[in-house]
Amino acid sequence: MSVLHNIYFSGKGTTKICAECIGAGLHMEEKSYDWRKQPCETKLEIPREDVLLFSMPVYGGFIPRMCAQLAMNLKGSQTPAIIAAVYGNRHYDDALLQMKDLLTAQGFWVAAAGAFLAEHSIFPAAAAGRPDKKDREAMAAFSAECSRMLNELDKAQYGEIQVPGKAGYDAQSFKGVPFHPDGDKACNGCMACVDACPKKAVDSEHPCETDGELCISCGACISVCPTGARNYHGDAYQAAGAQFVERCSAYRSPETYFADRIGISEV
Fold it and tell me: Which class for 145: exposed (0-12), middle (13-18), buried (19 or more C-beta within 10 A)?
């Protein structure tokens, strides 16, 4: 029986929600890999008869740099792959194309791709409450179409998937944001943030502080803080957040893409 390898990185938990929703709709035996908690630091070979579901958040138009590096440890053998980019209502820019390129170079055949919405990790008022009911319905429909394709298991019938993105993109161009979570006087020193940070940007001796050179602003420390001490603070953050929400308040819908059947026009 084929196995679904469900790989995702999720700072505040919303990408995990999307990955689990899509994965459940594929109705396969599943192995899950949470790269925030257990990054893939050694080679992981996924055989031709299995399926990879690769779900990543979008930071500045690309997937997290650490995840792009970890993807180099994945190895396929023309293994079918499904990719999902999860973004916070601005745009996913070149993320899908980057994910496709990364996995293709590692021996995977990307059969389907989707861009899905989730609450923004830095400015949570943008796309607040998402993924919502409509998002879950879109993910279920996406899974159903992926299942149909995978059940055919004849990749020779399909051409290369086409996804949005700019040729010649520079995945190193995004240098991060100037905002990083820190702790306030509500901190009780429990060290949950220290354990949760995937980049070790929170020092156990100074848990209210954050190393801005290491922090990728994923929000993991915020999501695990039991007292609400960890968050983004400051007037500059508040001002930037108001501007961002004003620009990115329109409701956006998920977008999905599938490899075309050769010689058959999709209607």
Answer: middle
Side chain identity at residue 67, one-letter code = C
Residue in this structure with the two tokens 């949950």, named with its chain if needed:
192
CA distance 219 to 196: 9
At 91-134, the pLDDT tens digits run: 999 999 999 999 999 999 999 999 999 999 999 999 999 999 99
- Contact assessment for residue 109 and residue 78, using Cβ atoms and an 8 Å cutoff: yes
Domains plus CATH for the chain? 3-169+251-258 (3.40.50.360), 192-247 (3.30.70)
| Inter-residue contact 44 to 72 (CB < 8 Å) | no
For residue 84, is it left (φ>0), alpha (ψ between -120 and 50) or beta? beta
Query: CA nearest 112: which of 73, 151, 65, 57?
Result: 151
